[in-house]
Amino acid sequence: MTFPNDDTGQVLTEMQAAGVDLTIVHPVVFFQLFEQKEQAEAMAQLLKEKAPDMQLSIHPDEIPNVWDLDCTINMLPDYDAIVAQEAQLEQIAAKFNGYNDGWGIEA
């Protein structure tokens, strides 16, 4: 498989080269960052209502005074699906003064 020449395409290319089977469902984690824990909790509450199958985890980030909301979805690591999901989560995070910080596959 070949992927577009952008960050998402690069990550998928690296995963493929490392032997990750991109034709099967994986837990894909989308990372959202917030300055306040309450902001992360508010987004998590909204997602619990709108996407009950999504697994959510809030924890302090490596950067001091920053909170992570990890949003895990079982899905095919398809380029278009990842880009669309990332954009949707980033739009929601912005409503709570947060932003997207990439994605990855739980190995």
Automatic annotation (TrEMBL):
Q: Which InterPro entries does the entry mention?
A: RraB-like_sf, RraB_dom
* Source organism of the structure: Thalassotalea castellviae
How is this protein named in the record? Ribonuclease E inhibitor RraB
Pfam families in the cross-refs:
RraB
Domain Regulator of ribonuclease activity B, which positions?
6-104
Q: Where is the signal peptide?
A: none
